[in-house]
Structure formats: C-alpha cells, structure tokens
What does this fold into?
Amino acid sequence: MPFKKPHHTSDENYITKDGDKFVILPRGLNIIWGNDSRYWKIPENGPAELIQVSWLEVSGVVNITKAATYSVSFEVNVKADGFGWKGTDVLVMAKIGRNGKYKFKANKLNHCQNIVIPYERLEIRVDVPSDLHFGLYEVWSGKWKGGLEIIKAVVQPLP
It folds into this structure.
C-alpha cells in the first residue's frame, strides 16, 4: 500500500477566476492534515469541515497579473458544536511572493457564526505580476479546536 500524504494539496480545478477576482473552494486550498479523516472532511463539493486540530493552517496561492490593491477573505462557519475558539485569535494573512512580508488581520470566532473574515478588510498592494500567498491560521494557542467549516476564500481587486 503506497504512503498517503497527510496534507491536502491544492487542486487548481477548484480555483475559478472571473476577471481579476479569484474564488477558491476548499479543494483549491492547501490544508495541513487535510488528508487525514481524523482531522478533516474535505468533500468533492461543499465546505471542508474541521473535525479537530491543534494546528490550523489553510493556505493558497493565486497568480496576480494586474497591478491593483487586492482584498483577501475567507467565508467560514463555526458549527454549534464547535470548540476551542473562545478567546483564540484566528489570523487571515497575505503576502506577495514566497519571501514577502505577511500582512494580517486577527479575528475571534463564535459558535453558530457564518461569516466572512477578516472583519476589517485585509488589503495588499500588488505592483507587478506576482504570486499572492494567503491563508487562515491558528497555530499559536496549542488548543484543540474543531467544528469549523471553510466555505471558500476570495481574492479580489478593490474598486
């Protein structure tokens, strides 16, 4: 039996581009521990569901070809049985290129909450064609957390 990688790797078929706007469905994201059913459920269609992790890392990359200021956001849902989120900052982060400096916004999540984060828009300026790296992270608290659904990520130019 061949070794199965523990992490889910982005599938480009789940990234759509409409003009300069990118919509990234869960299978279009890199999800740490995403191929292990003890930690995540990632269906063909619909949201990815976090069962439990102590290290939340969901990331993606899109190739930006037009100079503009872009916003990065995630649509998420915290289920009624979600746990480990109280008092914990979840960060939405973005940077230009592999070695760029991250910009981020911290957010708190609550039970039974279907929202777009960050609450305050995360803007990042792209001046030349570049890869924009982005993600959703909670790797600092050491708390086990679960009951989070990742619906989609969106990267789009600001008007």
Summary: The longest strand covers residues 68-83. The chain has a mean pLDDT of 95. The chain has one domain: 12-157. The chain is about 0% helix and 55% strand.
